[in-house]
């Protein structure tokens, strides 16, 4: 197949036109399938603690892997449009979200360069909460720190290797504290067929 693997995380913890967070994540997943066509590999849905703590109810999170020849900036623009269709408002950094779609990685690309990616990856959490990058950073700079991303991602791309860290998704997941991983619980009985 042509193209690179693009990895995308989906999350929701605020009701919207789709009523409940799980419905919003499923809406996002269907839109991604329409955007990229098959094959789209989808994880199960997971209930995850709100991040950062205290911003609202638990999240529903998932991940997808797609193959694409599209430019990462064009993908990001389309993800923002899908969020807009789900009534996403960007008023508070890391606030409650009706639908959050994050472009985690595209193949083994490091964007815009290794130094900038590392700067954002190593930035303290308090600084990350106050600052926004002015361009797309790939891989997502906090990918390796977030169980709510890595647990679903391990279902769709377990052997993808972070090009700056040299670790697979499974290795990054397994390096997280067991207590953090224990808070990520699959939602049973969710119909992914639409």
UniProtKB/TrEMBL annotation:
Pfam families: HPPK
Record Gene3D superfamilies: 7,8-Dihydro-6-hydroxymethylpterin-pyrophosphokinase HPPK (3.30.70.560)
Residues spanning the membrane: none
Record function comment: Catalyzes the transfer of pyrophosphate from adenosine triphosphate (ATP) to 6-hydroxymethyl-7,8-dihydropterin, an enzymatic step in folate biosynthesis pathway.
SUPFAM superfamilies: 6-hydroxymethyl-7,8-dihydropterin pyrophosphokinase, HPPK (SSF55083)
One biological process term in Gene Ontology: folic acid biosynthetic process
Native source organism of the sequence: Loktanella atrilutea
Enzyme type, top EC level: transferase
Family: Belongs to the HPPK family.
7,8-dihydro-6-hydroxymethylpterin-pyrophosphokinase domain residues: 93-104
Enzyme Commission (EC) number: 2.7.6.3
Entry keyword annotation includes DNA-binding: no
InterPro entries: Hppk, Hppk_sf
Protein name listed in UniProt: 2-amino-4-hydroxy-6-hydroxymethyldihydropteridine pyrophosphokinase
Claim: Metal-binding is one of the keywords in the record: no
Molecular function terms, GO-annotated: 2-amino-4-hydroxy-6-hydroxymethyldihydropteridine diphosphokinase activity; ATP binding; kinase activity
This protein's pathway: Cofactor biosynthesis; tetrahydrofolate biosynthesis; 2-amino-4-hydroxy-6-hydroxymethyl-7,8-dihydropteridine diphosphate from 7,8-dihydroneopterin triphosphate: step 4/4
Keyword terms, alphabetized: ATP-binding, Folate biosynthesis, Kinase, Nucleotide-binding, Transferase
């Amino acid at each position: 197949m042509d193209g690179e693997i693009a990895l995308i995380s989906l999350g929701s913890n605020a009701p919207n036109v789709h009523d409940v967070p799980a419905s919003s994540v499923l809406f996002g997943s269907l839109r991604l399938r329409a955007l990229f066509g098959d094959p789209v590999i989808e994880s199960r849905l997971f209930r995850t603690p709100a991040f950062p703590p205290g911003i609202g109810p638990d999240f529903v999170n998932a991940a997808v892997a797609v193959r694409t020849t599209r430019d990462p900036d064009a993908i990001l623009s389309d993800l923002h449009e899908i969020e807009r269709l789900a009534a996403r408002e960007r008023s508070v950094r890391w606030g409650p979200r009706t639908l959050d779609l994050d472009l985690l990685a595209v193949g083994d690309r490091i964007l815009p360069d290794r130094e900038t990616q590392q700067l954002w990856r190593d930035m303290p959490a308090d600084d990350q909460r106050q600052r926004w990058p002015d361009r797309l950073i790939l891989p997502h700079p906090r990918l390796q720190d977030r169980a709510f991303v890595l647990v679903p991602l391990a279902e769709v791309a377990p052997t993808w290797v972070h090009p700056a860290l040299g670790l697979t998704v499974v290795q990054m997941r397994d390096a997280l504290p067991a207590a953090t991983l224990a808070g990520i619980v699959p939602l049973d009985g969710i119909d992914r067929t639409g």
